[in-house]
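This part of the workshop introduces the protein records we will be handling. The question running through the whole workshop is how a given chain folds. To make this concrete, we reproduce a full record directly below:
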Amino acid sequence: MCNRYVSPQEADIERFWHIGARNPVRWWDEVVFPRGRGAFIRRAVHDAGYSRELVAGQWGLIPWFAKTARLSYSTNNARSEELAAKAAYKQPWAKGQRCIIPALSFDEPCWESGKNVWWRFRRADGMPWGLAGLWNTWIDKVTGEVHESYSMLTMNADSHPLMRRMHKPDPKLPPDRQDKRSVIPIEAGDVDRWLAGTVAEAQALLRLTAAEAFDAAAVA
């Protein structure tokens, strides 16, 4: 599970993901934590054709049934295996409310030494990550205030040579049953299919990235 990442600047996001610079100026956190404010890219909601738009919202999806925007439970990460069944995510998943979360790097805890050592993960090619996410728009029925929000998708990484090393292991479980988690990068050539494809096409993009794609090391 990812609980901290670094966001690129707005101009860099617009340039790398080919988003027009007409987006209104927004503010989001440079280092994003759960329930903080981050940027995400989605299919433009008011475009009958297809274009991308840059949005800022809460990292922690606010589901349609929420009574308040301030949730008592965590939704910053969503297990990809549960998207079609989990109450908070099944509606956005079925409706194709998928997004790209831009990140220069993300951090994960490694417990191989017996204590928590934070590792930082960048791309080996120097490019930003485009991480798979789901978004939702929630409107406060009392005030009418509009809240944009998103979740970062994860998948089982017990078989991944790098990501399986992250997070605190459960000594009661064998190595191949730990349910270690990894974020899911969406490559630049797959962004349109992720944002605008069918559910089946999006499902096919939920896969782990080769260890060689990572530039990872303990944070000094």
About this structure: The two ends are 21 Å apart (CA to CA). DSSP finds four helices and twelve strands in the chain. The chain has one domain: 5-108+126-157+183-210. Residues 5-108+126-157+183-210 form a domain with the hypothetical protein yedk fold fold (CATH 3.90.1680.10).
